Amino acid sequence: MASPSKDFCTLCKEDNVTTDAVTWCTECEVFLCVECEKHHTRSRTSKDHKTISAENYHELPSFIKATSNLCKVHDKKFELYCSFHACACCVHCTTDKHQSCQTMKPLSEILKQVKSSAAVPLLEQDLKDLKENFEEIIEYMRNRISTNAKQKTEAIQKIRSMRKSIDDCLNQLEQQLLKDLEIQSSILKSEMETRLHKVDKRAKQILKLQNEFSNMTKYATELQTYVGLKEIEKVTSQEKNYIDDLKRSTDLNERNLHLTTSSDLDFILLDVKSFGEIKVDKRPCNVKANAGRKDQAQYLVPTSMLDQVKPSFSNTLKVPEGKQMRFVDCCILPDGNF
C-alpha cells in the first residue's frame, strides 16, 4: 500500500525541520530520516531496535499500526503480560488494576519466538480456510442468484405458455360458438325468408286482384261483374282461410336467438381469483464450510497449569449476627468484584 503523503522524520520535526523519512522504528515508534537513522543504529539504547522502511510501515494493517508499545494509562513501556486478563501491562499496572493477578509473566517471554510459534502457521491456515470458505459461499450465492434468474425466466415462460393455452382454448371455443351462431342464424333466416316469399306472393295476388276489382266495377257489364264477384269472393275466401291457418300454425311464432354462456366459464370468473401463486421454498445449502479451530488462543498464550495456580485473599464478607448464609457458587470478575 503506498503512503498517502510524505512521511517526515519525527526527530527532525521536533527541531522544526522537515526531512523525508526513510525508516520506521518499531520500538521508538518514530519515523527516521537517513541521518537520524545512522545515529539511531549507533546509539547503545537503540542499536538493537528493529526498523522497517516507511513504505513497509504503510503496508501494515490499521489495527497493527494503532498498537503501541506504551501503556495508554501510565505512558510506560509494556514489560509484563497478564494471562488472566489477556493483556500487556507496564510496571505501574501491577499496582493498579492487577494487584491480585498471579499470572503475570515477562512480556519478552511471551513474545519470544512468537513469529516462529505454532500459532503463525495455524492462523495462516485458518485465514486460508476462511478465504476458501468465503470464496465458496460467494460462488454459491452467485450461482443461486443465477439459478433464481433462470427460475424466474422459466416461470415467465410457463405463465405465458399457460396463458397461450387458455387463449387458444377460448379462441377455439369462441370460433365454434360463432360457427353455431352463424348456422342457427342462417337456418332461421332461410326458413323465415321461405315463408315470407310465400306470403308476399299471395299478398301480390291480392293487390293484383284489388286492382282488377276496381277496373271491373268501372268498366265491366252487369253479367261480367256478377261472375267476377263470385270469382273474387272465392279467392278472398281461400286467402282468409290461408291467413287463419297461418295464424293457427307455428309458422308465425317468434324465433329469437339467445346466447347462453357455459356455466364453467361463469365459475372461472367467480372462483378463479389468481392466475397462480409464487412460493419460495427454503432448503439447506450444500456448502461444506470448514468450521476452523476453537482453541486458537491456546497457541498464542500459554495457560497456567492447575498446580501453578495459587489462591490469594480477595475480600471479606460479614454475616449479620443471628443470620445464616449459604454460598453455592462464586464468580470473581476481572476487576476484582464478585
Topology:
Blueprint: H1 10-14, E1 23-25, E2 30-32, H2 34-42, E3 51-53, H3 54-58, H4 62-65, E4 80-82, E5 87-89, E6 104-106, H5 107-111, H6 119-219, H7 222-248, H8 263-271, H9 296-300
Antiparallel strand pairs: 1-2, 1-3, 4-5, 4-6
Helix pairs in contact: 6-7
Keywords: Metal-binding, Zinc, Zinc-finger
Protein name: B box-type domain-containing protein
GO molecular function: zinc ion binding
Describe the overall structure:
The chain has 338 residues and is mostly helical. 50% of the residues lie in helices and 5% in strands. It has nine helices and six strands; from the N terminus they run H-E-E-H-E-H-H-E-E-E-H-H-H-H-H. The strands form two sheets. The protein has a three-stranded antiparallel beta sheet. A three-stranded antiparallel beta sheet has the order 5-4-6. A hairpin with a 4-residue loop joins strand 4 (80-82) and strand 5. Helix 6 (119-219) packs antiparallel against helix 7. It is rod-shaped and about 170 Å long. The mean pLDDT is 85. It comes from Mytilus edulis. Pfam families: ANCHR-like_BBOX. Residues 4-54 form the B box-type domain. GO terms for molecular function: zinc ion binding.
Order of helices and strands: HEEHEHHEEEHHHHH
Strand order of the largest sheet: 2-1-3
Portion of residues within helices = 40-55%
Radius of gyration: 56 Å
Q: Give a quick account of the main beta sheet: strands, pairing sense, barrel closure.
A: 3 strands, antiparallel
* Uncertain regions spanning at least 5 consecutive residues: none
Question: How many separate helices?
Answer: 9
Estimate the mean pLDDT confidence. 85
Strand content: 5-15%
